[in-house]
Amino acid sequence: MKHVGMKEEAGYSSFSLVLLRWFGENGRQLPWRGTRDAYAIWLSEIILQQTRVQQGWHYWERFVQRWPTVEALAQATEDEVLRLWQGLGYYSRARNLHFAARQVVQMGGFPRTFQGLRKLKGVGDYTAAAIASMAFDEPVAVVDGNVYRVLSRHFGIATPINSTEGKKEFAALAQQLLPAPEAAVYNQAIMDFGAMQCTPQSPRCAECPLIESCVAFREGRVGQLPVKLKTLKVQERHLIYIYVRCLGQTAIRRRGEGDIWQGLWEPVLVEHGELEVESLPLVPIRLGVRHVLTHRVLTCDFYLWQPDAKPQLPEGYVWIDEADMDRYALPRLIEKLLTLLPIR
User: Which residues form the catalytic set?
Assistant: First the structure.
């Protein structure tokens, strides 16, 4: 144990030492680890926001293969980026990714500090800390859902993690525990520990190397921590989509700002009385489809309309060849609905 003692004298807490040892034996082997390429790390962190690692892994590989450098990504069009992102959801991430790539090119490369990285579109404290520590060895701690959970349970902290007070308290504690000489490894260790060991449901407490010092386990509060304040209520929304098929073409429009699926394309939408549908010869394809988004539950009715001549549609729609639909970035819900259409 002399090795441990030496590290403790050098500023390593027993908590940090256990995590580093656990990570050395159990850490996930991911393709963006073991690299100091800021582009690869940044891309992985943006993709993994609101996305499971297994799903995000495949998207990361697709992006790197298509655009191997930030310069290549910056030269792409927004439609190309949205199209490759299709299926991941939270499309603002893709738009921010594209915008930030162009920022980086204009700067002459990635900023090498936490504060500099925070200036990139879509890069918050967590992402900036991850890139700064893993690519540039800056000793700054990451704080994400996994970190909140591990710290809250181990130290028995009941301050709500989504409160201003909680964010400050956990950020300070995370920074205090960070071993500066191994910041990158430690940040990955605590994230993996939360994702694999101290999980939201059914944590592996019996096999936890921190069980003896875990306050939540000792006090029977593992299921109660971390504490999170209730946020917005879930809203219900009813959408009626009409796929217009006429002379080998269909009508679509790009969704505008300030709503779900910004910048993506969709068939004719009837939601606010823009189109009188009662008298149209519509063929129901699928009714009552439920689609869950953050804070929203969508119920969608999907119809087919096959007029002999192109009808007058609300402003904003364009006619395209049906065969070209794959060239347009679509919401995942629309992509699924289109698979239900009868083949001509």
Answer: 45
